[in-house]
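Assess this one:

_____
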Amino acid sequence: MTQVTAALKQRKIIHVDMDAFYAAVEQRDNPQLRGKPVIVGGDPGSRGVVATCSYEARQFGIHSAMSSVRAYRLCPQAVFVRPRFEAYRAVSIQIRELFNEYTDLVEPLSLDEAFLDVTENKPGIEFATQVAREILSEIRKRTELTASAGVSYNKFLAKVASDVNKPAGLTVVTPEQAQAFIAELSVRRFHGVGRVTEKRMLARGIASGGDLRQRSEEELQRLFGSSGPYFYNIARGIDNREVIPNRLRKSIGKETTLDEDCVDKGEMMIILDKVAKQVSELLISRKTSGLTLTLKVRYDDFQSVTRSHTQSEPIDDAGIMLDLADTLLGKTEAGPRPVRLLGLTVSNLTTDILLDESAQMELPFP
């Protein structure tokens, strides 16, 4: 056993992910919606999009970023609800306060998910699985909502595990189970593998974590550049990233083109929540941050505008980016004026980085 492996085994990481968060809040606040297919987003008679939907709606093939018109065709009995972003934010704050009762090492990824390092936790609980069970129970008790959690010795495995038994699931991946668990994973489940990279991997016979593990580091670096060593390590369960509460983020951007034009600011904020999360992940991977956040809006007539905010402290959190984006969006004509593209970019970098093809990409919705 290497020293690195031994160190990794000592870490206890939990990834908590709320189940169908926005739709679940709507069902909680309106009992008449419970058990029904609920779509949070634009009205089916408009050119709006699906921001998110309940599990009942997902059974009909409905997903985020789908046009509301198409969603209605798939499920005419669905209930369409306008987003209430402030309600979702309030619940998110409540959940994060709960996390802080267990550890100060909480790294939010978006309004509805976060990493927790509970290697040493405030209640002094020995087993991370017990901590996760308590947190899921307390979330349900305090908010009447459910969440799923993954527990493992690193962030990659904890995050993947949290998605295994949704909704209201808890999955543990021990160091002894890790190699077999990774071997069965589709390469698309690996962070950093989008549609383009997945296609390139499949073309080379790399379909699973087991396939990826068969390739040398040199080959992966030749095929995928700077991401090669990352893929090599992650296929072996090696992820040295720490849970950092105040992560320094970096000066690159993401943008997404909507399937249909959007006129609802609540929908736009939910989309920007996803974009902020993607930007923050890139900032972490490149170990940098920036002082300026720029919001990009493209209207339905293809006119693009930007609004920026510069501050003295580095922008270091997806939540901060989202708050700033909310203010910047109010300085545009988005709302009555239909929007077809939204993007966020962090600039005025605090460190030098090499630009690559991922610096500005379209965000695929899950």
Observations:
- The chain has a mean pLDDT of 86.
- Residues 80 and 289 are 38 Å apart (CA to CA).
- The two ends are 37 Å apart (CA to CA).
